[in-house]
Structure formats: structure tokens, C-alpha cells
Amino acid sequence: MAVALLQWAAAIYLIACLVAASGLVLRSRRLGRGAVWLLAAGALLHGFSFPLLHAQGEAPPLTSLAAASSFMAWVGTLCFLALLLRVRVAGLVVLVAPAAFLGVFLAALRLPTVGPATFAGSGSWPHAHVLLASAGLALLGLSGLASLVYLIEHARLKAKSKAGRPFALPSLEALDRVNATALAAGFALLTLGVVTGMFWVQAASGRLFVGSPHETWSLVAWAVYAVLTAVRFGGRQGARQAATGALIAFGFLFFAVIGVELLT
Amino acid sequence: MKILLLGMNHRTAPLALRERLAVEDPAPVLRKLIGSEEIDEAVLLSTCNRIELVVLTRNPDAARLRLRSCFRFDLAGDDGFPAAADLESHLYEHAGPDAWRHVLRVASSLDSMVVGEPQILGQTKDAYRAAVECGACGPILGRLFQLAFATAKRVRSETQVAARPVSVARVAVDLAEQIFEDLAGKKALLVGAGEMTEAALAALRERGLSSVAITNRTPERAAPLAVRFGATAHGLAELPRLLADADVVLTSIAGDVPLLTPGLVSAALSGRKSRPLFVIDIGVPRNADPALDQLDDVYLYDLDDLAAIADRNAAQRSRDVAKAEAIIEEQQQRFDGWFVALRAVPTIRHLRERIESLRADEVERALGKLPLSEDQRAAVEALTRSLVNKILHAPVSRLRREAEREEGIVYLETARVLFDLDEPAAADPDGADPTDES
């Protein structure tokens, strides 16, 4: 049932991608709004899959990479929808919808989750770590997507020969606001995710730091974000540098969490 | 029966004349028009750029005279009547397909001063509504205007005709909207003044730009402009402070060296974090050093940049207009077919009446000889009526279809001969209510 829900959600996200792409090319705000509504419908179905997953197994449902990617996609989508209430960035749906689709599609292919043995005696730390770190990663991913669009729009406005409005993308100011908001919230959640992860390691091994590649790279990624956040909110950075930093940092975080997991 | 359109617009008549003839409430004029024998339906579109009367008439020659008299006497009102010859030189007239094509183009904003502007559709809807409310718009013009609204919607959704700005001022607004999330609450700084900067400022204010500061070498000279825009006037000495506060800077001030240098602007931006600054330099020679563009959060556009975008948009718009014209053509053909098909209506009506009369006579005669109960008589009535409808269904449908083609007239004449319909001129719908097919 959970997998069926994920498959339905993936299908709706995919339709949202196509509608958003059509809206972008045709510069149709109506299609853009339609894509946002489809994304919301997909997120609703997607959300129902998590309690079902939880009911199915003893292990925390998100501790496999596939399930965590699904959760990240869902949180990212919800955060995007929430941001739409305050910031005019509906055009960003053209990137959020494919990201949501990929996250769910991977989960729909790779469920069920890993076995319960890994989590024996760890209490609630695995739950807390996965929820907080995934939500943080989702928000920082959203910040990265907004940054990517910002850099494209910035380059287009600077190269005057390409200015004009070929596509219905959000304004630079709105993209910068999304970048800043998602960075602030995402870094806070990532910090909590790192802390709860260390407590999980301690509960399982008796030590806060065991030197696993995942742990090491995650700490390095956190440090990168700490610097980025300090520079961004310390007022020593323009919007373009902030966008470049957010994009590079997200690439690094993605490698630290997903890449290292896959390589090891 | 013919649709006629008589009007004047921004291309054919000066503003002074259009102002004299414009009406706020079209109802009295329309009531008077449809009160005349030669006009069956009428709609009056009166905007600042055009005054047009669209009428349905059975007597086009008389209607032409009546419309001219309406322009000269009814619309001119108390301001004195324009000379007939003078008025005639400013009028255009369209009849038949040209008239409804014109209505479709007007509603779709292809005939507007600024092609693609959205107001004309609302104004056309208002004109239609006013005509319906005072009983001047009947089923035929009603159908035409509904089609015009649908056409305008198609043009808007299937082409980009309204999406690309083609004036320097509008390009500036469009760029500002790509930089800023919302112009409401944003602050503009006008350095010097000029026709184009004022136009750009006015366009930005229309989109919500809230406060304006004007700086000039002599603040006293900026004062009248400041009053016009509800702005504050300052001397050039205050430029660094004003720059730090501004979101949009419009410059057009005389001077041989650039006034806005990277040093000045960098210093002004130092306390702003990542807030962008949009600089529109319309000065000749330029007032802003081109090196400003190297600053990340500064978006500098000079007159050439804006004009180049406007030109590109104009070229794209002309391609979009061609697409829109194709939509108009398609919609016009739909109305052509529908309007031509109206001539089948009298023949079909006469055919139905003739057959119904035969049926009723025969049934009455037969029932007079048969001792039937009320239920049985009703059943016979229903049976014969159903038979007649079934027999007539195919020929009537065929007549309607054929009537949409020019050659379909042969079918109508054949039907009249075959069924001995007694009006030889029945192919001409004059004198008949074309919507009454019962």
C-alpha cells in the first residue's frame, strides 16, 4: 500500500513537472499555478505513505537511503509550498517538481527499508536524526535550487543581449529570500541532525565519534554550512556570492550524505 | 440582413474630435438607434481611442445614413455638430465579414494603439453589457461579441502578443519586475529629468513603486516635477545618501563625465547587504560609468540596452501578431458559416409549418371518422408528430449544413420547389426572425 501511494505520488509529481515545463516555455502563469496545485496534491498522497511505512516495520522507516530521499523530497516540497504563501517564487516549481519526482521514484523502486538490527538499543535517536537531518537536507536543497535559478537569472540580466523575459521565472529578490530563509532553517535542522546523529552513535557504540566516513564527511559539510551561514547573515556577502556559496555547499553536502553512503 | 460598422479611432481621428464624440452612457444613443426602422441591433464601443457603432440592419443604405447622422448629431451632443465632410474624413466603415473581422481584432487588442494592451477587452465587454441591458443587442450581435471574447481569450493564451513590452519605459518596468519581487514599497531616485525618464518613472509608479526622490543640480528646477510625482526634491550633494536608500535609479542629467561612478555606488551599497540596485541610464552622454555593471548587485541598463530589448520584443511581437491574425481568420470563418447559415432559417421554418399543417389536417380528418378515446387520440397525435419529425430530420439537417456554403443556396431553392413553399424570395431572410426555428 505504501509503495502504491509512492507510485501515485511519483506519477502526480511527474505530471506537475510536465505542466511546469509547459508553463515555463509558454510563459503561462495558469500552467505554473496548475503545476503548484498538482505538486500539492502529490505531496498530500506522499505524506500518507510515511505512517504506512512506519506501521509496516520495526525499524525507523526512513533509515534506508531510498526512504530518506523520499522524505527529503516531501519535506522540500512542503517547505516550497509554505514559502509560496510569503514569497512569489511559483516559477521555481519547474525545479522543485522534478526533484520531488526523483526522490519519490527512487523510494518507490528501492523500498523496503534495512533490517532492525542496526538500531537495537539506540532508543529514539535514529528517528530524531533521520527526521531532522533529512528535513535539513531538504531545505538546503531548496536553497541550492533557488541559488541555481538565481545565478541563471543574474547572468541573463547582466548579459543584456539575453535580457527580456523568455521564461516565467521568479525575480532575483524573491530567489534571494528563498535562499536566505531555506539556508537559515536548513542549517538549524542540519545542526540538530548532526547532534542527534552523534547521540545515536554514542547510544550504539559508547562514543560520540567513531570516525565513520558518513560521520566525518557530515561534520565537514556542517562546518562548510556554518561558515556559509555566518558569512551570509554577517552581512559580508552579496546575493550572487551567497547563491554561489549555497550551490557549492549543497553539492558538498549531497556528496557527504548521499555520495559517501553510496560509495561505502 | 447585414452587419455594418462605422467608427473612428486613434489612427483616423484626432484626440480632440474623439473627445467630443465619446459617450459615457451608450444607452440613450443605442435606444434611439434601434428605435429607427432600419436598425435591428446595435452596440456602441466608446473608449479614449475609438468610437465604433456596430449594427445589424436589413437596409444597409439607410443604415449607413442613419449611423452617420448618429455620429454627427447624437454623439456630438451639446458641443456643436461637426461638419459632415470633416467628420466623413475621419470615419471608417466595414460591412459584412470585414465588420465582424474588425470586431474580433478590436477585442483581441490587435487594433489598439499599444497592441496587446489588456484594457480593450474589458471595455468591449462593458459596451456589450450596456447594449444587452438596454435591449439593443440581440442574438446576432450577441453571438458576434461572444465569439469576439472567446477569440481574445485564445489570442491571449495561444500567443505572446501581450507579453512583451515594446517601449523603453515598459522594458524598464519589465526588467525591474525581474529584479524585484514587488515594486510596492520600493524607492526610486530620479537624477536630473527628461521625457523618457519621466515616462519610465510613471510606468514604474503604475506598478506600485512607492516613493520617489528627485535630485538635480538646482533643486528648485526639480520642484515642479517633484510636485507632479509626489516626490521630494534635493540637490546633487545629497546623491550619496539618496543612492544608499534607492532601489531604482533613473538618470538623465547633462554632463560630460559620468556622475555615478563605481566608487560612489560601492560606498552607497556597502550597508545594504544583498539588496539589488537597478540603474536606468537614459543620459546622453551616459551618466553612469559602464564599470558599474561589474558590481554584483547593480543592474545597469543604458538607453541602447533598453532600446535593443524593445526592438527584439517588437520583432517577436510582429511574429506573434501573425499568429494572432491566423486565430482571427479561423474565428472569422466560424462566424461566416454561422451567419450564412441564417438564410436557411426561413425555408426550414416554412417547411416545418407546411408539413405540420398537413399533418394536423389529416389527423383531424381521420380522428373525426374513428370512435377513439382521449388517450387513443393523444397517442395518434404523438405518433404522427414523431413520424413527421423523423422524416424531416435528415433534410433539415442537410439544409442547415449546406446553407453554410455559398453554393448551398441551390439546396434551399430545390427544397422550396419540391415542397411547394409559397414564398419565392424565401432564400432571403429579410423580414424573418432568423432565430425562430420553431
Features of the shown structure:
heterodimer, A: 264 residues, mainly alpha, 8 helices, 78% helix, globular, B: 438 residues, alpha/beta, six-stranded parallel β-sheet, 10 strands, 54% helix, 13% strand, elongated, disordered C terminus
Describe this structure in words.
The complex is a heterodimer of chains A (264) and B (438). By secondary structure, chain A is mainly α. Helix content of chain A is 78%, strand content 0%. The radius of gyration of chain A is 19 Å and the shape is globular. Chain A starts with a helix and ends with a helix. Chain B is elongated, with a radius of gyration of 32 Å. In chain B, helix 11 packs across helix 12 and helix 14 packs antiparallel against helix 15. Chain B is of the alpha/beta class and 438 residues long. At the A-B interface, helix 5, helix 6 and helix 8 of A face helix 8 and helix 13 of B.
Quick structural overview:
The complex is a heterodimer of chains A (264) and B (438). Chain A has 8 helices and no strands.
* β-strand number of chain A: 0
How many angstroms separate the termini of chain B? 20 Å
Shape descriptor of chain A reads globular
Number of helices of chain A: 8
The value of Rg of chain B in angstroms is 32 Å
Helix content of chain A: over 70%
Uncertain stretches of chain B? 424-438
Q: Average pLDDT of chain A, to the nearest integer? A: 84
Task: Please outline the major beta sheet of chain A.
Answer: none
Kindly estimate the percentage of residues of chain A that lie in beta strands according to DSSP. under 5%
Can you give the helix content of chain B as a percent range? 40-55%
Mean pLDDT over all positions of chain B = 85
Class computed from helices, strands and strand pairing of chain B: alpha/beta
- Rg calculated over all Cα atoms of chain A: 19 Å
